[in-house]
Amino acid sequence: MTVKQQATWSNPFWHQGFADPFVLKVRGRYYAYATENIAHPTEQARVFPILTSTDMVSWQEVGKAMAHLGAPHFFYWAPEVTVSNGQFFMYYAVHTEEFAGSIRVAVADQPEGPFVDSGHDLTAGLVPWAIDPHVFKDDDGQWYLYMTIEYLDAESGLVGSGNAVARLLDPFTVQGPITRVTRPTQAWQIFEQRRASKGGVDWYTVEGPAVLRQRRNYYQMYSGGCYYRDNYAMSYASAERPMGPGGLQDTSWHDWSGRQGDPRLVHGDEWMIGPGHNSIVLGPNNVDHYIAYHATQPGMTERQPCLDRLFLHGDELWTPAATHTPQPVPTMPRLRDLFAAPALSSNWQATSGEWKVVVEEGAVVQHDQSLKRSILCQQTRLSANWLLEVNLKQESGQGTYGVLLQDNNKRDAIQCTITADKQLVCTNLQTGSTQARALPANTILERWHQLLLSQSGHILTIQFDGLPMMDVVLDHVMHSFALITEQCSAAFSAISLTDHYRDEFLSADHTPAMLGWSAATDLQDWQIHDDALHQTSSATGTHMLYKGQSYSQSEGSATMKLTQRAENAEAALGLVLHAPERAPITVWFVQEPTGVSLRVAGLADPIKQQLPQGSDLHDWHTLRLQCQPACLRIFLDGPEIASLPISMETSRMGLATSNAAAAFISVWQTGQSFSVKGEE
Question: Active site annotated at which positions (predicted)?
Fold first, then answer.
C-alpha cells in the first residue's frame, strides 16, 4: 500500500557560503541575494551572488548581481532589493576604508540583474559609516531606509553599532535627519571586549534590521552580538510608528522583553551556531511568513542560509528557528499558474478575446485592444474565504483591465479594474455602484504591478503593490473569478489562489456576521470593539462561533484571553473543530484554582494535560492547530504541546468559550496544499 507523507526539507537550504541572505518574492518566484564573500574583488569580478526558486526548497544559482565599483571600494555587504513600478533597486553597503562605509543603490529591470550602480551614495553626507540597508514601505506609500550606524555616546546605551532610520524621498534620496531605532543596551549583544580597533572599549553590536507591520504596530527584527561567534542571535523591537520624532535620542522603539528571562527570540545551539541577519518574506501561499537568516554548522566556517516560519501571535512574534531537523515544506496555493507552458491549462476558458501564453515572460496576454470586452475564466471554484494574487500590466490601448468576480449563479458580479487614468475602480455590475481610488501618481501602467484581493465573509479587501486600497461590502459572496480586458491589450502573470482568512477585528464597522461568522446559539453575544472580538456573556454555558468551510488539511490559530468568568463554575476557552456527521472536537484551556490545563473533548478518550506553572488565561495566549486527516497537532504560544491521532476527513474551525466571557484577536485559518512523497 502506498502511504502519502508530507514532503519535508532541512536547513540550510543552500550548502555553500551565503551570508546575510535577503529573499525577495516577485511574480511567484523567489530570489535570494547575499553578501559578497570576496573582500577585495579583482578587476573583472562581479559581486553579490543570487539564487532563485519557485518553491523555497529547490534553489539554483543565477550568477552575481553587478560589477564591482573598482578602487577604492571593497567589502560589499548585505544587499537588499525592493521593487517599484516594475524596476528593481538594490541597496547595499560598501567600504572605502575599514570604518568608512556608506549605502548605495543599484538599478535593474529584472530581479536577476544585471544591476547597475546609480551613482547615488545615500548616507556619506549623514554619517561616516553605515551598513545593512533595509527599505520598508508603509501602508501610506512612504519609504523608509533602515540601516546600521555607530553609537559612540554611552549616555543612553552601550557603545557600538545599532540601527537607525531615515525617510526616502525617492529611491535615490535620503531625507535627514537619521533617527534612532535600536541601539545596544543588553549584555548578550557584546561584539568584542576591549576591542583594540576601537580604542580598547567594550564594543557591542545591534545590526541587520528587518521591518514588518501587523495590527497597527511595527516590528523591527535585528541581530546582536558578534557575527562570527556563537553569541550571535536575533530579537526584535516594536513601535507605534516606523520613525520617531526624536532623532538619534529617540525612544519610540522598545525591545521585546523576552520569555523565561531570555531576551533573544532566536539563538544558536550545538547544531546551528550564530543564527542571524534575517530578512522576512511571504511563502508561496502569500499567507505564511518566513525568516531567511544565516548560521554556521559544526566544523564549518561558512555562514549558510536557512529558512523558518515566523508567526505573529497578536502583538508578539514567535519562530521555531533555528531548526536543523526536517520541517514541512512550505504550503502551496490551491491554484498557482506561472504560465511556464506554451498553452493554457484546461482550468482556463476564454469566452472572448485573443489570449496567448508568452512563456518568456511567464504571462498570458490578451492581444486584441479593439475588443469591447474580453474574458478568460478560471474554472477553479472560490472557497468561502480566499486570497487571490494577480500580477498585471497594460500592453497597449486606453481601456481597462483587471479581475472579474462572480457569485455562484453568475447573476451578481464585481469588477475590479485599472483604468488608463491610473484609477483602481471596483464596480458592482448588478447595481452599477462603484468605488474608486487613485493609484500612486508615479504608477507606470506598462510595468508589472500586483493586485491582491481577499474575501473574508462579505468583506472584499483590495491591495495594489502592497498598498491598502479599499474594502468593499459584498451583497453575495463570490464563487469564481476571471481575467478581463476592455478596449486594451494587457498581460497577466503569477496567478495564485489560497483558501484563507485572517480577522484582526480592527474595524468596529465590521460585524461578526459581515465577516462570515455564525453562532450555534446567539450571535448577539459576539461583538467587535476595542480592536478585538468579544464573547460578552459570562453566564454559565457554552458559546461557539464558526466560520468558513471544511478542509481535509488546514492550519488555524487564535490569540485569546479570559475577561470574566461565571461564579462557581470552571471557565474555559479555546478552538473547536466541527466535522460533518460527528461531534465537534474542542481544544479547551481551562482556568483551574491551581493553574491552567489543556483538555481535548469530543474524543473517545478525553485528554487532560496540565500546563506550566504560572499560566493564566487572563493573559493573552495563542493556540494554533494543524489538522491533518489522521493527526491533530496542538501548539501553545509557539511550541507544540500535543500530537493526537485523530481520524477526521474534513473539519472547519470555530471559537469556543464555556462559563466565561473572552476576547479574541488574530484569528486565521488556511486550507493547506502540500507537496507529498510516496512510500511503499
Answer: 20, 207
Longest distance between any two alpha carbons in the chain, whole Å: 80
CA distance 621 to 196: 46
The reply to whether 677 falls in a domain is no
- When divided into structural domains, the chain yields a total of 3
Question: Is 86 part of a structural domain of the chain?
Answer: yes
| Main-chain phi, psi angles of 249, to 5 degrees | -105, 10
Which pLDDT tens digit goes with each residue over 172-231?
999 989 999 999 999 999 999 999 999 999 999 999 999 999 999 999 999 999 999 999
Domain boundary among 500, 526, 550: 500
Which set of grid coordinates corresponds to residue 396?
497597449
Q: Which three cell numbers stand for residue 597?
A: 490545563
CA-closest candidate to residue 144, choices 191, 216, 213, 88: 213
Reading the block at residue 328, the C-alpha cell is 514541512
Helix and strand numbers, DSSP H then E, in the chain: 0, 52
* Catalytic member of 55, 150, 207, 288: 207
Does one domain contain both 418 and 520? Answer: no
E strand or H helix at 161, and its extent? strand 160-170
Identify whether the C-beta of residue 553 lies closer than 8 Å to the C-beta of residue 651. Answer: no
170 annotated active-site: no
What is the spatial distance between Cα 340 and Cα 314, in angstroms, rounded to a whole number? 39
**CB atoms closer than 10 angstroms to residue 72:** 10
Q: Is 581 a catalytic residue?
A: no
In angstroms, the CA 82 to CA 115 distance is: 12
Cβ(638)–Cβ(313) under 8 Å? Answer: yes
Run of H or E residues at 207:
strand 201-214
Domain's final residue, options 469, 500, 531: 500
